[in-house]
C-alpha cells in the first residue's frame, strides 16, 4: 500500500502558517517515490492506488508546495518523479540537470476560485469592483505562500490583475501549500480563501463563492517529469499510466483539465 505524506494545517499564528512541512520524504522505502504538488493529493492518491493494484509495486507519495519539493530535490532528496503545480519550479529542477531528458510533459490544468466555509452559498461574480476587504469583515484571507507556492503566486496575480490585492494584502494568512490554505477555510479559521477549483471540489466543508476570470492570472499548468538519478524504469511505467485513460478519468472527476 502506498504511503502518503502530507502536513496538517495548524491554526493561524500571526499572519503566516509556516513550518507545515520541512522535509517531504517518504516514511519508508518503496518501489517508487513521487514528489507532488499538494493540490494533487485527492486525485493522485487514487491514481497511485490503481497503479499499485495493477503492478503489485509500492509507491510513496510526498505532498507539499512545489517550491519546497523542488528545493528538496535540488538538495538531493530521493525522488523518482516530480509533479509541480507550475512550470517555474519544474524549470528550476530541470536547469540543475536533475530531470531526465525527454520525460517532461504538461499533464493537467486547473483554475482559481474564492471559497468560504460551509457546504453551499450563492455564487457571485469576481470583478474589479468586488469589495473583498468588506467580505472579510476583519478576518483573514487564506492563501498559499504568495511569493513561492504556485497557488499563492497565481492567487496574488489574479488579485493584482483585478485591482484587489492592495485592499487585502495586510489580511492575507499565508500557508505552506494549497491544501493547508484550504484547511484554514474548511475549519472556519479563515472566512475566505483563494485556492484551486480542484481543491474546493475535494473539500465538502467549503463552497465556491466565485471563480476568478481566467485572464486575470497566468495559465495553471502541472508538468511532470522523471528525476534523472531516480528509478527510471519504474518511473517510466508510472508515467505511462499517468497519461492513460484511467488516470485521465480520475483527474477529470476531480475537476482538472487533462492536457493531451
TrEMBL record:
SUPFAM superfamilies according to UniProt: Periplasmic binding protein-like II (SSF53850)
Pfam families (alphabetical): SBP_bac_11
Q: Which UniProt keywords apply?
A: Metal-binding, Molybdenum, Signal
Keyword Secreted assigned: no
- Kindly give the InterPro entries that the UniProt entry links to this protein: ModA (IPR005950), ModA/WtpA (IPR050682)
UniProt: molybdate binding residues: 39, 66, 151, 196
- What molecular functions are annotated in GO for this chain? metal ion binding; molybdate ion binding; tungstate binding
Q: Which residues cross the membrane?
A: none
Query: Which superkingdom is the protein from?
Result: Bacteria
GO CC, alphabetical: outer membrane-bounded periplasmic space
Q: Which Gene3D superfamilies match?
A: Periplasmic binding protein-like II
What biological-process terms (Gene Ontology) are attached? molybdate ion transport
Q: How does it assemble?
A: The complex is composed of two ATP-binding proteins (ModC), two transmembrane proteins (ModB) and a solute-binding protein (ModA).
What family is this? Belongs to the bacterial solute-binding protein ModA family.
Q: What is this protein called?
A: Molybdate ABC transporter substrate-binding protein
Q: Which organism is it from?
A: Pseudooceanicola pacificus
Source lineage: Bacteria, Pseudomonadati, Pseudomonadota, Alphaproteobacteria, Rhodobacterales
Q: Which gene encodes it?
A: modA
